[in-house]
Amino acid sequence: MKLRTLLFWPHLAAGVLAGAVILLMSFTGVVLMYERQIIAWADRGVRSAPPAVDASRLPLGEIVQRIGREIPNVTPTAVIVSADREASVAISAAQRTLYADPHTGRLIGEGNQSIRRFMTSLRAWHRWLGVSGERRSLARAVTGWSNLLFLFIVISGAYLWFPRRWTWQRVRQVIWFNKTATSRARDFNWHNTIGVWSALPLFIVVLTALPMSFPWANNLLYRAVGEEPPAAGARGGREGGGARTRDGGAHRGEDALAGVDDLLARAQARVPGWRTINVSIPGSSSAPVAFAIDAGDGGQPQSRSTLTLDRAGNLVSFESFADQTRGRRLRSIARFAHTGEIFGLPGQTLAGVASGGAVCLVWTGVSLALRRGIAFVRRRRERADVAEESAA
Protein backbone atom coordinates (compact mmCIF):
# COMPACT_ATOMS: atom_id res chain seq x y z
CA MET A 1 0.00 0.00 0.00
CA LYS A 2 1.35 3.43 -0.93
CA LEU A 3 2.05 6.02 1.77
CA ARG A 4 -0.48 8.43 0.31
CA THR A 5 -3.24 5.82 0.51
CA LEU A 6 -2.09 4.80 3.99
CA LEU A 7 -2.45 8.39 5.21
CA PHE A 8 -5.52 9.37 3.23
CA TRP A 9 -8.13 7.14 4.85
CA PRO A 10 -7.18 7.91 8.50
CA HIS A 11 -6.97 11.58 7.47
CA LEU A 12 -10.50 11.44 6.06
CA ALA A 13 -11.85 9.42 9.02
CA ALA A 14 -10.33 11.83 11.56
CA GLY A 15 -11.86 14.79 9.74
CA VAL A 16 -15.32 13.24 9.65
CA LEU A 17 -15.13 12.07 13.26
CA ALA A 18 -13.91 15.32 14.81
CA GLY A 19 -14.97 17.78 12.12
CA ALA A 20 -17.86 19.38 14.02
CA VAL A 21 -15.77 20.00 17.16
CA ILE A 22 -12.79 21.27 15.14
CA LEU A 23 -15.13 23.61 13.26
CA LEU A 24 -16.49 25.01 16.54
CA MET A 25 -13.04 25.45 18.12
CA SER A 26 -11.66 27.08 14.98
CA PHE A 27 -14.60 29.47 14.58
CA THR A 28 -14.53 30.58 18.22
CA GLY A 29 -10.74 30.74 18.08
CA VAL A 30 -10.82 33.39 15.36
CA VAL A 31 -12.65 35.80 17.69
CA LEU A 32 -10.74 34.82 20.83
CA MET A 33 -7.43 35.62 19.12
CA TYR A 34 -8.34 39.31 19.47
CA GLU A 35 -10.03 39.15 22.86
CA ARG A 36 -7.82 41.79 24.48
CA GLN A 37 -8.18 44.16 21.55
CA ILE A 38 -11.95 43.71 21.43
CA ILE A 39 -12.29 44.43 25.16
CA ALA A 40 -10.02 47.47 24.84
CA TRP A 41 -12.16 48.72 21.95
CA ALA A 42 -15.33 48.21 23.98
CA ASP A 43 -13.78 50.22 26.84
CA ARG A 44 -12.49 52.99 24.57
CA GLY A 45 -14.85 55.53 26.13
CA VAL A 46 -13.26 55.36 29.60
CA ARG A 47 -10.06 57.24 28.82
CA SER A 48 -9.36 60.25 31.00
CA ALA A 49 -9.21 63.77 29.66
CA PRO A 50 -5.80 64.96 28.42
CA PRO A 51 -4.02 66.24 31.55
CA ALA A 52 -2.30 69.57 31.92
CA VAL A 53 1.45 69.56 31.42
CA ASP A 54 2.11 70.03 35.13
CA ALA A 55 -0.73 67.77 36.32
CA SER A 56 0.24 65.25 38.97
CA ARG A 57 -1.35 61.88 39.71
CA LEU A 58 -3.23 61.30 42.91
CA PRO A 59 -1.94 58.62 45.30
CA LEU A 60 -3.41 55.22 44.45
CA GLY A 61 -4.88 54.86 47.93
CA GLU A 62 -6.78 58.12 47.55
CA ILE A 63 -8.12 57.07 44.13
CA VAL A 64 -9.39 53.79 45.55
CA GLN A 65 -10.89 55.65 48.51
CA ARG A 66 -12.80 58.06 46.26
CA ILE A 67 -14.11 55.19 44.12
CA GLY A 68 -15.19 53.46 47.33
CA ARG A 69 -17.30 56.49 48.21
CA GLU A 70 -19.02 56.46 44.82
CA ILE A 71 -19.57 52.69 44.82
CA PRO A 72 -19.87 51.58 48.46
CA ASN A 73 -19.91 47.83 47.78
CA VAL A 74 -16.72 47.70 45.72
CA THR A 75 -13.98 45.34 46.97
CA PRO A 76 -10.79 46.14 45.03
CA THR A 77 -8.15 43.45 44.56
CA ALA A 78 -5.72 45.20 42.20
CA VAL A 79 -4.97 48.55 40.61
CA ILE A 80 -3.51 48.82 37.11
CA VAL A 81 -1.61 51.93 36.05
CA SER A 82 -0.44 52.74 32.55
CA ALA A 83 2.52 54.68 31.19
CA ASP A 84 0.09 56.47 28.88
CA ARG A 85 -0.72 59.79 30.56
CA GLU A 86 -4.22 59.79 29.07
CA ALA A 87 -5.02 56.24 30.21
CA SER A 88 -7.36 55.72 33.14
CA VAL A 89 -6.44 53.86 36.30
CA ALA A 90 -8.14 50.46 36.19
CA ILE A 91 -9.41 49.00 39.46
CA SER A 92 -10.18 45.29 39.52
CA ALA A 93 -13.01 44.33 41.86
CA ALA A 94 -14.26 40.75 41.61
CA GLN A 95 -15.82 40.46 38.14
CA ARG A 96 -15.86 44.21 37.58
CA THR A 97 -13.31 46.65 36.16
CA LEU A 98 -13.72 50.28 37.19
CA TYR A 99 -11.89 53.17 35.53
CA ALA A 100 -10.87 56.32 37.37
CA ASP A 101 -9.18 59.53 36.32
CA PRO A 102 -5.62 59.35 37.72
CA HIS A 103 -5.49 63.11 38.29
CA THR A 104 -8.86 63.73 39.93
CA GLY A 105 -9.90 60.29 41.21
CA ARG A 106 -13.26 60.71 39.49
CA LEU A 107 -15.03 57.55 38.40
CA ILE A 108 -15.10 57.62 34.59
CA GLY A 109 -16.99 54.42 33.96
CA GLU A 110 -17.04 50.65 34.13
CA GLY A 111 -15.73 48.05 31.72
CA ASN A 112 -18.22 46.75 29.18
CA GLN A 113 -19.81 43.78 30.91
CA SER A 114 -21.72 42.57 27.85
CA ILE A 115 -18.53 42.11 25.83
CA ARG A 116 -16.80 40.41 28.77
CA ARG A 117 -19.71 38.01 29.29
CA PHE A 118 -19.75 37.27 25.56
CA MET A 119 -16.02 36.50 25.58
CA THR A 120 -16.40 34.31 28.66
CA SER A 121 -19.20 32.38 26.99
CA LEU A 122 -17.21 32.06 23.77
CA ARG A 123 -14.21 30.78 25.72
CA ALA A 124 -16.41 28.19 27.42
CA TRP A 125 -17.58 26.92 24.03
CA HIS A 126 -13.99 26.89 22.77
CA ARG A 127 -12.65 24.90 25.71
CA TRP A 128 -15.49 22.63 26.78
CA LEU A 129 -18.38 23.08 24.33
CA GLY A 130 -20.23 25.42 26.68
CA VAL A 131 -20.95 22.57 29.11
CA SER A 132 -21.15 23.30 32.83
CA GLY A 133 -21.20 21.18 35.97
CA GLU A 134 -20.02 17.60 36.21
CA ARG A 135 -20.20 17.05 32.45
CA ARG A 136 -17.50 19.66 31.83
CA SER A 137 -14.68 17.13 32.29
CA LEU A 138 -16.22 14.92 29.59
CA ALA A 139 -16.65 17.87 27.23
CA ARG A 140 -13.06 18.92 27.86
CA ALA A 141 -11.94 15.40 26.96
CA VAL A 142 -13.91 15.64 23.70
CA THR A 143 -12.25 18.92 22.72
CA GLY A 144 -8.85 17.59 23.79
CA TRP A 145 -9.03 14.43 21.70
CA SER A 146 -10.52 16.37 18.80
CA ASN A 147 -7.53 18.68 19.01
CA LEU A 148 -5.21 15.65 18.96
CA LEU A 149 -6.99 14.32 15.88
CA PHE A 150 -6.67 17.77 14.34
CA LEU A 151 -2.90 17.59 14.89
CA PHE A 152 -2.83 14.33 12.94
CA ILE A 153 -4.96 15.91 10.21
CA VAL A 154 -2.54 18.81 9.87
CA ILE A 155 0.56 16.57 9.84
CA SER A 156 -0.88 14.09 7.36
CA GLY A 157 -2.42 16.89 5.32
CA ALA A 158 0.97 18.54 4.90
CA TYR A 159 1.85 15.49 2.79
CA LEU A 160 -1.53 14.90 1.14
CA TRP A 161 -2.16 18.51 0.11
CA PHE A 162 0.86 18.59 -2.17
CA PRO A 163 0.74 16.78 -5.56
CA ARG A 164 2.29 13.38 -6.16
CA ARG A 165 4.69 14.80 -8.73
CA TRP A 166 6.56 17.99 -7.95
CA THR A 167 6.38 19.84 -11.20
CA TRP A 168 5.73 23.58 -11.29
CA GLN A 169 2.47 23.13 -13.17
CA ARG A 170 1.13 20.72 -10.54
CA VAL A 171 2.46 22.64 -7.55
CA ARG A 172 0.96 25.88 -8.89
CA GLN A 173 -2.48 24.25 -8.84
CA VAL A 174 -2.32 23.72 -5.06
CA ILE A 175 -0.58 26.89 -3.90
CA TRP A 176 -3.13 29.31 -5.34
CA PHE A 177 -6.84 29.48 -6.04
CA ASN A 178 -7.88 28.40 -9.53
CA LYS A 179 -11.00 28.99 -11.57
CA THR A 180 -12.81 25.69 -11.62
CA ALA A 181 -15.87 24.49 -13.50
CA THR A 182 -17.46 22.26 -10.84
CA SER A 183 -18.17 22.67 -7.13
CA ARG A 184 -16.19 19.51 -6.37
CA ALA A 185 -13.12 20.85 -8.18
CA ARG A 186 -13.51 24.16 -6.34
CA ASP A 187 -13.69 22.46 -2.93
CA PHE A 188 -10.69 20.31 -3.81
CA ASN A 189 -8.67 23.33 -4.88
CA TRP A 190 -9.64 25.37 -1.81
CA HIS A 191 -8.96 22.46 0.53
CA ASN A 192 -5.45 21.94 -0.84
CA THR A 193 -4.52 25.60 -1.23
CA ILE A 194 -5.73 26.68 2.20
CA GLY A 195 -4.17 23.58 3.73
CA VAL A 196 -0.75 24.29 2.19
CA TRP A 197 -0.67 27.91 3.37
CA SER A 198 -2.13 27.15 6.82
CA ALA A 199 -0.13 24.01 7.62
CA LEU A 200 2.73 25.58 9.60
CA PRO A 201 0.76 28.12 11.70
CA LEU A 202 -1.98 25.53 12.31
CA PHE A 203 0.64 23.02 13.46
CA ILE A 204 1.89 25.55 16.04
CA VAL A 205 -1.62 26.56 17.17
CA VAL A 206 -2.80 22.96 17.55
CA LEU A 207 0.41 21.57 19.07
CA THR A 208 0.58 24.29 21.74
CA ALA A 209 -3.01 23.55 22.75
CA LEU A 210 -2.10 20.03 23.91
CA PRO A 211 -0.52 21.10 27.26
CA MET A 212 -3.78 22.90 28.03
CA SER A 213 -5.86 19.87 27.03
CA PHE A 214 -4.00 16.98 28.64
CA PRO A 215 -2.04 16.73 31.91
CA TRP A 216 0.33 14.23 30.29
CA ALA A 217 1.17 16.73 27.55
CA ASN A 218 1.79 19.45 30.12
CA ASN A 219 4.04 17.10 32.14
CA LEU A 220 5.87 16.02 29.00
CA LEU A 221 6.67 19.63 28.24
CA TYR A 222 8.46 20.02 31.58
CA ARG A 223 10.19 16.64 31.42
CA ALA A 224 11.48 17.44 27.93
CA VAL A 225 13.80 20.01 29.54
CA GLY A 226 14.67 17.83 32.52
CA GLU A 227 12.29 19.36 35.08
CA GLU A 228 9.76 17.81 37.38
CA PRO A 229 6.23 18.97 36.49
CA PRO A 230 4.47 21.16 39.07
CA ALA A 231 1.98 19.49 41.34
CA ALA A 232 -1.52 19.14 39.92
CA GLY A 233 -3.72 22.06 40.92
CA ALA A 234 -0.79 24.20 42.06
CA ARG A 235 -1.58 27.84 41.46
CA GLY A 236 0.31 30.98 42.19
CA GLY A 237 -1.15 34.10 43.63
CA ARG A 238 -3.79 34.80 46.21
CA GLU A 239 -7.10 32.98 46.16
CA GLY A 240 -10.42 34.49 47.05
CA GLY A 241 -12.09 37.77 46.38
CA GLY A 242 -9.72 40.20 48.02
CA ALA A 243 -7.88 40.70 51.26
CA ARG A 244 -9.73 40.23 54.53
CA THR A 245 -9.63 42.32 57.63
CA ARG A 246 -9.48 40.80 61.11
CA ASP A 247 -13.19 41.16 61.55
CA GLY A 248 -13.79 39.11 58.40
CA GLY A 249 -14.96 41.98 56.21
CA ALA A 250 -13.51 42.72 52.80
CA HIS A 251 -10.55 45.12 52.93
CA ARG A 252 -11.26 48.13 50.73
CA GLY A 253 -7.61 48.77 49.85
CA GLU A 254 -7.18 52.47 50.66
CA ASP A 255 -5.33 51.74 53.93
CA ALA A 256 -3.32 48.90 52.42
CA LEU A 257 -2.16 51.22 49.61
CA ALA A 258 -0.98 53.98 51.91
CA GLY A 259 2.53 55.01 50.87
CA VAL A 260 2.58 52.54 47.98
CA ASP A 261 3.26 55.27 45.40
CA ASP A 262 6.92 55.51 46.46
CA LEU A 263 7.21 51.77 45.91
CA LEU A 264 5.47 52.14 42.55
CA ALA A 265 8.12 54.66 41.50
CA ARG A 266 10.80 52.08 42.36
CA ALA A 267 8.96 49.47 40.29
CA GLN A 268 8.81 51.86 37.33
CA ALA A 269 12.54 52.54 37.59
CA ARG A 270 13.28 48.82 37.85
CA VAL A 271 11.91 48.10 34.35
CA PRO A 272 12.57 50.94 31.91
CA GLY A 273 10.09 50.94 29.06
CA TRP A 274 7.25 49.52 31.15
CA ARG A 275 3.76 49.95 29.73
CA THR A 276 1.44 48.74 32.50
CA ILE A 277 1.92 47.80 36.15
CA ASN A 278 -0.59 45.71 38.07
CA VAL A 279 -0.43 46.51 41.79
CA SER A 280 -1.93 43.74 43.93
CA ILE A 281 -3.65 45.23 46.94
CA PRO A 282 -2.05 43.64 50.02
CA GLY A 283 -3.95 42.45 53.05
CA SER A 284 -2.69 45.14 55.40
CA SER A 285 -0.78 48.41 55.48
CA SER A 286 2.39 46.59 56.59
CA ALA A 287 2.35 43.69 54.13
CA PRO A 288 4.77 43.63 51.15
CA VAL A 289 3.45 44.89 47.84
CA ALA A 290 3.63 42.85 44.61
CA PHE A 291 3.93 44.51 41.21
CA ALA A 292 3.32 42.71 37.91
CA ILE A 293 5.24 44.78 35.36
CA ASP A 294 4.52 44.44 31.63
CA ALA A 295 6.70 46.04 28.99
CA GLY A 296 4.78 44.36 26.15
CA ASP A 297 1.25 44.47 24.86
CA GLY A 298 -0.25 42.17 27.49
CA GLY A 299 0.25 38.83 25.75
CA GLN A 300 4.04 38.53 25.65
CA PRO A 301 5.44 36.59 28.63
CA GLN A 302 9.00 37.49 27.63
CA SER A 303 8.18 41.11 28.48
CA ARG A 304 6.71 40.43 31.91
CA SER A 305 8.33 40.52 35.33
CA THR A 306 7.18 40.50 38.94
CA LEU A 307 8.61 42.61 41.75
CA THR A 308 7.83 42.44 45.46
CA LEU A 309 8.97 45.17 47.87
CA ASP A 310 8.49 45.56 51.58
CA ARG A 311 7.08 48.80 52.95
CA ALA A 312 10.56 50.18 53.52
CA GLY A 313 11.36 49.75 49.83
CA ASN A 314 13.64 46.75 50.31
CA LEU A 315 13.67 44.06 47.67
CA VAL A 316 11.79 40.91 48.63
CA SER A 317 11.90 39.25 45.21
CA PHE A 318 12.26 40.03 41.53
CA GLU A 319 11.64 37.60 38.68
CA SER A 320 11.86 38.32 34.98
CA PHE A 321 11.11 35.89 32.20
CA ALA A 322 14.80 35.01 31.97
CA ASP A 323 14.85 34.14 35.68
CA GLN A 324 12.22 31.44 35.32
CA THR A 325 13.09 27.79 34.86
CA ARG A 326 13.20 26.45 31.32
CA GLY A 327 10.04 24.45 31.94
CA ARG A 328 8.07 27.50 33.06
CA ARG A 329 9.37 29.55 30.14
CA LEU A 330 8.44 26.81 27.70
CA ARG A 331 4.97 26.50 29.23
CA SER A 332 4.41 30.26 28.93
CA ILE A 333 5.63 30.25 25.36
CA ALA A 334 3.24 27.41 24.50
CA ARG A 335 0.32 29.23 26.10
CA PHE A 336 0.81 32.45 24.15
CA ALA A 337 2.02 30.80 20.95
CA HIS A 338 -1.40 29.11 20.81
CA THR A 339 -3.02 32.51 20.31
CA GLY A 340 -0.06 34.03 18.49
CA GLU A 341 0.18 36.75 21.15
CA ILE A 342 3.80 35.99 21.87
CA PHE A 343 4.64 37.63 18.53
CA GLY A 344 2.37 40.61 19.10
CA LEU A 345 -0.45 41.69 16.82
CA PRO A 346 1.17 40.16 13.67
CA GLY A 347 1.30 36.80 15.43
CA GLN A 348 -2.31 37.09 16.55
CA THR A 349 -3.35 37.94 13.00
CA LEU A 350 -1.48 34.96 11.58
CA ALA A 351 -3.04 32.62 14.15
CA GLY A 352 -6.47 34.13 13.49
CA VAL A 353 -6.13 33.71 9.73
CA ALA A 354 -4.96 30.12 10.24
CA SER A 355 -8.00 29.41 12.44
CA GLY A 356 -10.23 30.89 9.75
CA GLY A 357 -8.45 28.63 7.27
CA ALA A 358 -9.25 25.67 9.52
CA VAL A 359 -12.96 26.53 9.25
CA CYS A 360 -12.66 26.34 5.45
CA LEU A 361 -10.64 23.10 5.67
CA VAL A 362 -13.38 21.42 7.70
CA TRP A 363 -16.11 22.72 5.43
CA THR A 364 -14.44 21.67 2.18
CA GLY A 365 -13.10 18.43 3.66
CA VAL A 366 -16.51 17.27 4.86
CA SER A 367 -18.02 18.35 1.53
CA LEU A 368 -15.48 16.27 -0.39
CA ALA A 369 -16.05 13.30 1.94
CA LEU A 370 -19.81 13.48 1.39
CA ARG A 371 -19.35 13.63 -2.37
CA ARG A 372 -17.01 10.63 -2.21
CA GLY A 373 -19.55 8.71 -0.14
CA ILE A 374 -22.43 9.56 -2.48
CA ALA A 375 -20.34 8.57 -5.50
CA PHE A 376 -19.41 5.28 -3.82
CA VAL A 377 -23.08 4.44 -3.15
CA ARG A 378 -24.01 5.39 -6.72
CA ARG A 379 -21.30 3.12 -8.17
CA ARG A 380 -22.48 0.19 -6.08
CA ARG A 381 -26.04 0.67 -7.27
CA GLU A 382 -24.88 0.85 -10.88
CA ARG A 383 -22.88 -2.37 -10.48
CA ALA A 384 -25.89 -4.04 -8.86
CA ASP A 385 -28.10 -2.93 -11.76
CA VAL A 386 -25.60 -4.23 -14.32
CA ALA A 387 -25.39 -7.55 -12.45
CA GLU A 388 -29.18 -7.89 -12.46
CA GLU A 389 -29.38 -7.14 -16.17
CA SER A 390 -26.65 -9.68 -16.90
CA ALA A 391 -28.45 -12.32 -14.86
CA ALA A 392 -31.70 -11.61 -16.65
User: Please, how many helices?
Assistant: 12
Structural class assignment: alpha+beta
Q: Cα-atom Rg, whole angstroms?
A: 27 Å
Could you estimate the helical fraction of the residues in percent?
A: 40-55%
Task: Describe the strand arrangement of the main beta sheet, using strand numbers.
Answer: 4-3-2-1-5-6-7-8
Task: Give descriptors for this structure.
single chain, 392 residues, alpha+beta, 2 domains, eight-stranded antiparallel beta sheet, 12 helices, 11% strand
What would you note in describing this structure?
There is one protein chain. This protein is α+β, with helices and mostly antiparallel strands and 392 residues long. It folds into 2 domains: 3-32 and 132-227 and 346-380; 44-111 and 246-324, no CATH class. It is built from 12 helices and 8 strands. It has helices at 3-32, 35-42, 60-70, 113-128, 136-160, 168-175, 183-207, 210-213, 215-223, 260-270, 326-338, 344-391, and strands spanning 78-82, 89-93, 96-100, 107-110, 276-280, 289-294, 304-309, 315-320. It has an 8-stranded antiparallel sheet with strand order 4-3-2-1-5-6-7-8, covered by helices on one side. Helix 1 (3-32) packs antiparallel against helix 4 (113-128) and helix 5 packs across helix 7 (183-207). It is elongated, with a radius of gyration of 27 Å. The protein starts with a helix and ends with a helix.
